[in-house]
Write a structure and sequence with these properties.
two-stranded antiparallel ribbon, ten-stranded mixed beta sheet, alpha/beta
């Protein structure tokens, strides 16, 4: 069985570069299989770590994380996932299909093992295209040519993975500089964000929001360009429970310069620490209060 590549073990002395910690590191699986579109920030060239892996390794060294990177979906099983505290996805498409990147697919049993592990108490982190994964009613690798069915909320018919995550990607328009309002500065990683995050990003439009989410960022759509943003403001980052587990999602992360942004990094570290149970936070549901019209979707544009 091929094991995931360990990109960094924080808490061990390695050439004097990694500090020693009294506590055990949080064990993080960074899973980056692309059955659909493969983003540049997760692409490995000639076996070298991807851009996001390098950033994550730096954050891990400073924050006592042990990060293993894998694109092999066939590894997913209860026994495999038991070795991690936090499972982090930057993925696309139907992961039970080999699809775009050619790496082994997840089995249906592996998908169930993932959801069971999170419900049983594991932490889950979803970044950007994690919401472009296991689309409701879409099977097979690659991106579908017919996307009209995405422009409605699915309710109880949403894919089980989507129900776990708390939201689902619809579409995006051109990349642009926009503001995401910070809703809860008391949440881990949000204290130094200020009132908003303003970056150039491939901003996803989202649907199928979980009623019990604790919203962290709300995208201000009032001045955004493109038909897909002609809708009320909606969450682009949140935390929520899933059974005994903890789920944290941030729709940012498409661009390399976003990964370099200290605000994104602060949020990510806080999310990992919270999902891994290292720190606590109030995650009282607030969707109805901070984004009451979030489920009013845009008209189909493409």
């Amino acid at each position: 069985m091929k094991l995931p590549r360990l990109v960094l073990v924080a808490g061990l002395s390695l050439l004097g570069l990694i500090p020693m910690f009294a506590d055990s590191p949080l064990r993080v699986l960074y899973f980056t299989k692309s059955s659909g579109y493969e983003h540049s920030v997760i692409k490995q060239t000639d076996g070298a770590p991807s851009y996001s892996e390098k950033v994550l390794a730096q954050l891990a060294a400073k924050n006592n994380f042990a990060v293993a990177v894998s694109k092999d979906g066939s590894l997913f099983s209860p026994e495999y996932l038991a070795g991690f505290d936090v499972i982090m996805f930057f993925t696309t498409g139907d992961l039970t299909s080999v699809g775009t990147d050619g790496h082994p697919a997840m089995t249906p049993a592996g998908k169930k093992a993932l959801l069971d592990a999170i419900a049983g108490g594991k932490g889950f982190i979803g970044l950007h295209a994690a919401s472009d994964t296991f689309h409701t009613g879409e099977v097979g690798g690659g991106n579908p040519t017919e996307r009209a069915k995405r422009y409605h909320n699915d309710g109880d018919a949403a894919d089980p993975y989507v129900k776990m995550l708390g939201g689902e990607f619809i579409m995006h328009d051109e990349q642009q500089v926009s503001k995401a309002k910070v809703i809860d500065p008391s949440f881990p990683g949000c204290a130094d964000l200020g009132g908003a995050i303003e970056v150039k990003e491939e901003w996803y439009t989202l649907k199928n929001f979980a009623d019990d989410m604790h919203v962290l960022l709300v995208l201000d759509t009032s001045e955004m360009k493109g038909p897909d943003y002609q809708r009320p403001s909606y969450p682009v980052a949140w935390a929520r429970p899933y059974g005994k587990g903890r789920v944290w999602f941030d729709a940012m992360g498409h661009r390399e310069d976003v990964w370099d942004n200290p605000k994104f990094q602060d949020m990510l570290v806080g999310g990992i620490e919270w999902a891994g149970g290292r720190v606590q936070a109030n995650i009282q549901p607030n969707l109805a209060q901070v984004a009451p019209d979030a489920s009013k979707l845009q008209a189909m544009s493409k």
